[in-house]
Amino acid sequence: MNIDKTKAQMKKGLLEMVILNIIEKGEAYASDIIQSLKEADLLVVEGTLYPLLTRLKNEGMLEYRWEESKSGPPRKYYTITEIGRKTAGELVEGWQEMVAAIDLIIKKN
Amino acid sequence: MKKNLRVNISGIIFNIDEDAHIALKNYLDRLRLHFGNGNSTDEIITDIESRMAEMFQQKANGSDLIIDLNMVNQAIKAMGEPGEIEGEETAEDESNYNPKDNYYSEAGKRRLYRDSDQKIVGGVSSGLANYFNIDPIWIRLAFVILTFSGMSILVYIILWIVIPEAKTTAQKLEMRGEPINIDNIEKSIKDELNDISNRMKDIKNRHFKKKSGELTIFEKIAHVIVRIIAGIFRFFAFGIGIFFAILSLILIVMLVPTFFSSSVFWLNHIPGFHLISLSGALALVMESPYDINLFLTALAMVLFVPLVALLYNGIKVIFNIRYRNHAIGIALSTIWITGLVLLIYTTTKLANAFDREAMVEEPINLSAFEGDTLRISLKNLNTLTEGLPIVKAQSDQYLFCSDEQYYYLNPTINTEILDSNAQFSISIRKQSRGETHLIAQQNAEEIQLPFQQNDSLITLSSYCYWPIKQQFRAQKVELIIGIPQGKTLLIDPQIMQNELENNFQTNADMLEKCESTKKNHQYIYIDKNRDHVIIHNKNRRIEILDDEIDLN
Question: What's the structural domain count of chain A?
Fold first, then answer.
C-alpha cells in the first residue's frame, strides 16, 4: 500500500470543503487560499486549486470581483454565495459525522 | 549571450530569457491540452498565468528583473505538472459526473504524422500505428517482412518524405486523435458558421452590393448545394488518391526491377525480348558503362519523379495531410528536369553513334568446279546461340548476343541472274552504321561470315558475327548469289527448313530468267513457267510464292 497516495486521495476529497470554508471566513484571493491550504498541508501543487475554483464558481457557489494590486497582476477576490454557504455547511456536517463514526471504529479496536 | 524577450503576463511586462519563454509557453500549452477545450480552460489558464506572474513579481521585489529558466522551472514546480494536477482531478471527474464536460471515448479525426517520440528510424511506423490505433510493432514487422521483397525500403523513404513530423503538442494530439467534446463541436460549428457567413458576406459585397444584412434563402440553398458538391468532390478525391497511390506504387514495383535486375519478369512474355535486361539492352548499343549508368539514372529520374509525386499526393489525399512542403516540389521538379536534360544528352549521343551508314562488299573467290549446279549448304550453328539473350533487330532477323566476344546475326540471302556465259558468284554485302563514315565502314568490315568450298558445295555459316566491342550499329549482312542463266542453284532443304523463314528471299526477277531444273527430291528447283519455287523433300513439298511460304 502506497501511504502517500492514499493520503493524497483523502486530501483530494476534502479540498472543496476546505476551500469553501476558507472563503466563508472572508473574501480571499488564490494566493491567500493557497497559503492556508499549504499550512494545513492539504495542497501538493498549486495548479490543482485553479480548476477547482473555476468549477465552484461555475456551479454558483462562489463569486469573484477584480481588485487592482500594487505589487502584481489584478487579483480575483472570491466570496461565497448562499448556495456555497449551504453546501459548505452540509459538507462540514457530513465530514464531522464521518469523523465521529470512523473514530468509533478505530477506538473499538 | 542570451536573447531575451519582453512579454506581457497578466498585464505585467516582464523581461524573459528566450529559453525560459519557451519553457513557460510549453508548460501553458501542456496545461491547455490537459484541461481540454472547455470554456473554463481559458479561465483556469489565465488564473494560473496570473499566479505565476505574481510569483515572478515577488522574486523581482520591485527591481527590474529578467526571468530565467530556473525561475520558470521553480514556478512550474510550485504549480505542478499536468500529470500531478490530473492525479487530483480524476477522483473529481468521477464524482461529479457531468456529461457536458465529459470526453467522448471515441477518438476524433486523426491525422497522419510521424511520431518522433517513439521513432526507431524515422517515426513512420509509429506514426502509422498511431493513425490506425494499433501497436507499432505490427507495422514494423510488416516493413521488415516486406523488405525481403525489396519494396518496403523505398515505400518507407517515400512515406518518410511525405508524412510531416508531429512537432507541436497540437499536432501530437491530432496524431493520436484529439478527444472531442460538446464544447469543441459547438466551437467548431460556430467557427464554421462564422466563416461561412463571412464568406457569404464577402460574396455579397462583391456581387450584390445593393443588398445587405441577412442571407437570402437562395443564397442559403446555393451554399448548401456548394457544400454537398464539395463533399462529393472530397469523396472522389479520396478515391482518386487511393487509385493514384496504388497505381504509382504498382508502376514503381514493376519498374524498379527493370532498372536493377538482370532479367525483367514482365518483359519475358514479350516475344523477342526474353532474357534481356534494360542494362543488357543498353550494353548492346552503348560503349562505356559510364554512358549506360548515366542513361539509366536519367531515365529513372524522368520516370520515377512523376510516380513519386503521384504517390506523394495520393498519400496526402488519403490521409488528409494538409501540409505543404514547397521544398519537396522544387526538389522533385529539379530532379525531373535534370533527368530530362541528361536523357536528351545521352540519347543524342546514342543517335550520333548511328549517324552514318557504310557498306562493304566482299566477293568470295570460288574455285573452279565441274558442272552447271552450285549447291549451298548452311551450317547450322544453333548450338552457339542457345541460351543467349535475343534482341529482335529487324523484322525478319534476330540478333544474338554472347556475353563473351561476339554478336550473331542471320544473313539474308539474295540472288541475281547473270549472263549465261558468266560464272557463279557469291559476295557478302556487309552494312553498318557509325558515328562517322569511317567508323561505320570499320564496323562493317569487322563482320565475319565463314564459309567453306568443297567442289560445287559451298558451306556457309548460318550466322555472321562481329566482336562485342563493336557494339550493335544496325549491322546487316546480305549474301548475294549470282546465278548464270541456264544454271541451277540448289539449297540444302534440311537447312532450308530451319532457315527458310528468316533467311531466304526469293527474287521475282530470278524466277523469270532461270531455267527449270529438277535434279533430285532433296534440292530446290526453280520453275520458270510456274512462277514459283518448289522444294521437294521425301515427304513434304514446300512451295514458295514470292515471300509466301506454304507448307503441305
Answer: 1
Touching check for B12 and chain A: CB below 8 Å?
yes
> Is A8 part of the contact surface with chain B (CB cutoff 8 Å)?
yes
pLDDT tens, B9-67?
Answer: 877 888 888 888 888 888 888 888 888 767 788 888 888 888 888 888 887 776 677 88
Q: Where are the alpha helices (DSSP H) in B9-63?
A: 18-35, 39-60
Query: Is B86 near chain A, with CB under 8 Å?
Result: no
DSSP string, B103-162: PPSSB------B-GGG-SSSSHHHHHHHHHTS-HHHHHHHHHHHHTTT-HHHHHHHHHHH
**CATH number assigned to the domain comprising residue A79:** 1.10.10.10
Instruction: For residue B43, give the C-alpha cell.
Output: 479561465
Is the Cβ pair B51, A31 closer than 8 Å?
A: yes
How many residues in chain B? 552
The H helix count followed by the E strand count for chain B is 17, 19
Phi, psi (degrees; rounded to nearest 5) at B206:
-80, -45
Q: Give tens-digit pLDDT for A33-64.
A: 888 888 888 877 888 888 888 888 888 899 98
- Which chain A residues are closer than 8 Å to B9 by Cβ? 73
- Inter-axis angle of helices B326-353 and B289-318, nearest 10: 150
Set of chain B residues whose Cβ sits within 8 Å of the Cβ of A72: 12, 53-54, 57-58
3-state secondary structure (DSSP) of residue B204 = helix
Q: Output the pTM of the full model.
A: 0.43
Task: Supply B489's cell numbers.
Answer: 542453284
A68 near B CB under 8 A: no
Domain that holds residue A85: 3-108
Nearest to A51 among B51, B78, B89 (CB): B89
**Interface contact B57-A73, CB threshold 8 A:** yes
How close does chain B come to A54, measured CA to CA in Å?
Answer: 7
Q: Please indicate if any CB of chain A lies within 8 Å of the CB of B47.
A: yes
Q: Is B457 within 8 Å of B338 (Cβ atoms)?
A: no
Whether ipTM tops 0.95, in short, is no
Amino acid identity, residue A96?
A: Q
| Three-state secondary-structure class, residue B422 | coil
